[in-house]
Amino acid sequence: MKEAIAKLWFADGRIYILTDKGNTYSRPLEAFPLLLDATPEQREGYVIGLDGEDIRWEEMDEDIHISSFYNTEEPNPDNLIADVFRQFPQLNVSEVARYIGINKSLLSRYIYGIKKPSQQRTDQILDAIRQLGREMSQI
Description:
It is a single chain. This protein is of the alpha+beta class. The protein folds into 2 domains: about 5-70, Uncharacterised protein PF10387, DUF2442 (NE0471 N-terminal domain-like, 2-Layer Sandwich); about 80-135, 434 Repressor (Amino-terminal Domain) (Orthogonal Bundle). Helix content is about 35%, strand content about 20%. The protein is built from 6 helices and 6 strands. The strands form 2 sheets. A 3-stranded antiparallel β-sheet has the order 1-2-3, with no helix packed on it. A 3-stranded antiparallel β-sheet has the order 4-5-6, with no helix packed on it. Strand 5 and strand 6 (about 60-65) form a beta hairpin. The longest helix has 19 residues, at about 120-135. It is elongated, with a radius of gyration of 16 Å.
């Protein structure tokens, strides 16, 4: 039988869930930029889905599935995208996402290993970052 979210809370820069089976999981808020940037009141404006597998923040148009909490590696050392952001912490996730033309939440999920990008998407992201570097070197 699947687990369902019984309780949700925020503490120490993380989002936590407790399941109906008694398991506690957490992720850093950086993995969910909309929640990271949200006010405490906005964060508390969630609804847990009827099946207990989804969390919805209507005001922010944000959805998180319980499976997002099962990956506990932060971030995966084999994740090339995460590697770039670790090596160059001055890169702003929001601005890089805007430059690439993808949602910052999606890019953050790639960085934290919540979602795995296709090889084509990985190449697109890395190519865009390289292009940024070329543009910067011309200054």
